[in-house]
Amino acid sequence: MIRPGGKWENWGRTVRVRPLRVERPHSVEAVQRAVVAAARSGLRVKAVGAGHSFTGIAVAPDVLLDMSALQGVIDVDPQRQRVRMYAGTRLHQIPALLRPHGLAMQNLGDIDRQSISGATATGTHGTGAAFGGISTQIVGATFVDAAGEVHAVAEDDPLLPAIALGLGALGIVVDITLQCVPAYVLHALERPEPLDAVLAELPARVAAADHFEFYWFPHTETALTKTDTRLPADAPRRPLPALGRWVDETLLSNGLFRVVCALGTVIPAIIPAFARIAVRATGNREYTDVSNRVLTQRRTVRFREMEYAIPAEHVGAALGELRALIAERRWRISFPVEVRFAASDDLWLSTAYGRASAYIAVHRYHRENPSEYFEGFERIMLAYGGRPHWGKMHTLDAAQLAERYPRFADFVAARDRLDPEGRFTNTYLDRVLGVPPQRR
Ligand SMILES: Cc1cc2nc3c(=O)[nH]c(=O)nc-3n(C[C@H](O)[C@H](O)[C@H](O)COP(=O)(O)OP(=O)(O)OC[C@H]3O[C@@H](n4cnc5c(N)ncnc54)[C@H](O)[C@@H]3O)c2cc1C
Which of 64, 70, 90, 111 for mutating ligand 1's site (highest number of atoms within 8 Å of CB)? Predict the structure, then answer.
């Protein structure tokens, strides 16, 4: 977010910058003008969405392009259930935009505060063995390149698998066309279950459910599982009662949790006891509601996060190593570990490129130093062939990432061709992609 005085800071409070200038384009032409003007002054340009990335991927030291004036639907193809929308549209706006057309997004992540362009640029994903991340829903996009030229990328364009998950490195995306699905409701079953039993039958559970995920609170032997089943839009709905939802999601998961996290920084010894209470007090609910209300939640307790994708078959072993490490180091971890699943896809920089994937995510309260925990976790995940989420904390550089992505060199070649002067780079992108040719 941009603070009074012109300083920009991300949600996780991990990076901040005071850009030389902030522009808020209202049209594609205004985006072109901003890029051309920046080029004339030798400045870099960075489009910024909701600032929800934990890495420095959205840091804009020179020209910050605030995309929030480019929101809403441009056109709808009802036959093919495709919707073209401006890149700055926030995910939480999309359900109301799609509803009149009887459509919904195929899948979503945990929250809906992000912009569609930011979410897809970093490979944001939800869970479901048969579903890819949000970028896999993209069937077309329009972007402005470093020379200020507009490119429309259609479904069959060889560049689409790069643009759909482009890290903000290839150009300024001005609109995105999503392949939607008929609106649907989800039946959600949330249960506390013994972690070992869940791990023992994990492949079958993941395969049988439309969307399966679980949270494991360190210091407990319990997994809070969530199993969502897709139902037609006219299936009877049984939403959570407003009060119950408020108690679970506002009071317990956010309000009380915030107090415990804050207390835990001073008295870490309370954390295991709280974790045991948390798994008894939450995660035992059944409800049926429209898809977006089941898939996303509110997150108001600020944290830092690292998340890695590994081949799905290694998830039990990797989690076992993490459990052993937390016990051995006697760390007190207040945030649950989140485990999700996604189908293999063919987007060049997708964490699920070419393999059915499991995601394991670790979090730390924003006032705690995450370094030791995250370093230990990262070491485990790298040994299982892990690929880090582009919007979440990690330490890898271009050479290490090149070994983990078969199409990495193709992506860098596309970037070098579209942006040889590094108009769209920043320190993070220089680290993960290497410096563009004319800035070396
Ligand atoms: C509380 C919380 C919950 C989260 N939950 C999930 C989750 O469930 N699953 C998951 O996978 N991730 C999750 N994330 C990560 C988050 O989805 C990503 O970091 C996402 O990128 C944030 O979107 P944004 O709009 O804030 O993008 P920003 O962080 O603002 O930008 C991200 C990147 O996108 C680029 N970009 C933005 N707009 C454009 C544009 N128009 N053209 C070109 N480039 C552009 C930026 O330049 C930057 O490189 C979560 C993050 C938080 C803070």
Answer: 111
Nearest to 50 by CA among 107, 121, 119: 119
Report the CATH fold assignment for 184-388: Vanillyl-alcohol Oxidase; Chain A, domain 3 (3.40.462)
| Residue 66 CA, ligand 1 centroid: distance in Å | 13
> How far does residue 119's CA lie from ligand 1's centre (Å)?
4
> Tell me: domain 68-182, CATH 3.30.465.10, correct?
yes
State the closest ligand 1 atom to the C-alpha of 389, by its place in the atom list counted from 1: 11
Q: Which residues contact 315 (CB under 8 A, 6 or more apart)?
A: 202, 339, 358, 360
Closest to 261 measured CA to CA, from 300, 210, 214: 300
Going from N- to C-terminal start, the domains of the chain cover: 68-182, 184-388
Alpha carbon of 383 to ligand 1 centroid (Å):
26
Q: What is the pLDDT along the chain (440 residues), one digit of tens a residue?
A: 778 778 999 999 999 999 999 999 999 999 999 999 999 999 999 999 999 999 999 999 999 999 999 999 999 999 999 999 999 999 999 999 999 999 999 999 999 999 999 999 999 999 999 999 999 999 999 999 999 999 999 999 999 999 999 999 999 999 999 999 999 999 999 999 999 999 999 999 999 999 999 999 998 999 999 999 999 999 999 998 776 666 666 655 666 667 667 777 777 777 777 677 776 766 688 999 999 999 998 887 889 999 999 999 999 999 999 999 999 999 989 889 999 999 999 999 999 999 999 999 999 988 889 999 999 999 999 999 999 999 999 999 999 999 999 999 999 999 999 999 999 999 999 999 999 988 87
User: Residue 147 CB: number of other CB atoms within 10 A?
Assistant: 15
Residue by residue, what is the 3-state secondary structure of 305-362?
A: EEEEEEEHHHHHHHHHHHHHHHHHHCCCCCCCEEEEEECCECCCCCCCECCCEEEEEE
> Measured from the CA of 359, which atom of ligand 1 is nearest?
11
Number of the ligand 1 atom closest to the C-alpha atom of 167: 49
Question: Where is 85: in which H helix or E strand?
Answer: strand 82-86
Whether 68-182 shares its CATH topology with 184-388 is answered no
- List pocket residues of ligand 1, CB cut-off 6 Å: 11-12, 46-53, 57-58, 67, 87, 109-111, 114-115, 117-119, 121-122, 124-125, 167-168, 172-173, 299, 389, 391
| AA letter at 420 | P
CA of 175 to the centre of ligand 1 (A): 16
Candidate of 8, 62, 115, 258 to mutate for ligand 1, largest count of ligand atoms within 8 Å of Cβ: 115
